[in-house]
Amino acid sequence: MPDEEKEEVQTRQAPPCPGGFLYEIKAGDTFYALARRYGTTVEAIMSANPGVDPRKLQIGQLVCIPVVMPPAPPPMVCPGGTPYVIQAGDTFYRIALRYGTTVDALIRANPGVDPRNLQIGQVICVPVPIPIPPPAVCPGGVFYVIRAGDTLYTIALRFGTTVDAILAANPGIDPYRLRVGQTICVPLAPVVPRTCVMALSPSVTGPAPTAGGAVWMRTDVTGQTQILVEATNVPPPAQLGANWYTALFSWERTSFEVPLVEAPGTGVWAATTVQSLPAQFFAVGSVNVYPGPVLGGLVANCR
To answer: pLDDT at position 221, please?
Structure first.
């Protein structure tokens, strides 16, 4: 295989990424910028991507972003307030704006903490007002406790509903002043049974420009989705450095993999799975068949 083709295969090869998620390099990306964006470190990204030269990142290259789990907050005294774990980019000013307090109040609640030298993972006390009483009932929905970083938009995406629906279910709530520990009602969008089929397209820069495939999905009234993935006219995966093909379904920062199996003597790779999927998967999800990727498509095109 020519050096250029080897380099392209290595660029698009999906690295193993246990405990993290795959990210496709875009123009201007650096490990430093990715570390700041996802709350991790350059060292952690390099450790998760052995053999990747951070000085020679290529557009379209797949790298593993390790998910950083913040340390468990140690016990602390925070009367009338909420313990908060410092995240990348936090300042007392931003925290004060987010939680409806002041920098002076934060400084008084955290004696000995240097606001000019906050450390990721450091636990501080955020003096917040008493939360709004939770709604008494939540018909057709679930109660949800606000966590650090939540917005009504991200909550709506997570539960497959809308900001307007959440506001209607929580009269009096201020969407710009959500408080950690506050309980709200999240109305759940009704499950929409559906059956659809989408064609998978070969990757323009992939190793199998004549490959073909399809995805079939059927969602029942319980919210369970049956998925069938098929890939045809693809080279043996061993030629691409793998033992089998895998379909990677991704949306937001979530993904799941479906290993494909070859039907003996046919050259057809296929697999089935059953998943419980949120509404945003059908709106913004994508599927790519690796190694390569040899095929890909957008779930929104499933008709």
So the answer is: 72
Strand extents, DSSP E, 104-223: 123-126, 141-145, 183-187, 194-202, 212-219
The residue to which tokens 């995406």 are assigned: 157
Please tell me the pTM assigned to this model. Answer: 0.43
Which domains are seen in the chain, by residue range? 3-66 (3.10.350.10), 82-126 (3.10.350.10), 141-187 (3.10.350.10), 194-301 (2.60.40.200)
CA-to-CA distance for 281 and 160, rounded, in angstroms? 9
Alpha-carbon distance 84 to 183, whole Å? 17
Cα distances from 13 to residues 63, 211, 227, 287, in angstroms, run 9, 17, 24, 15
Q: Write the DSSP symbol of residue 218.
A: E
- The per-residue pLDDT for range 3-55, each reduced to its tens digit, is 544 444 445 667 788 777 888 888 888 898 888 877 788 888 898 888 888 88
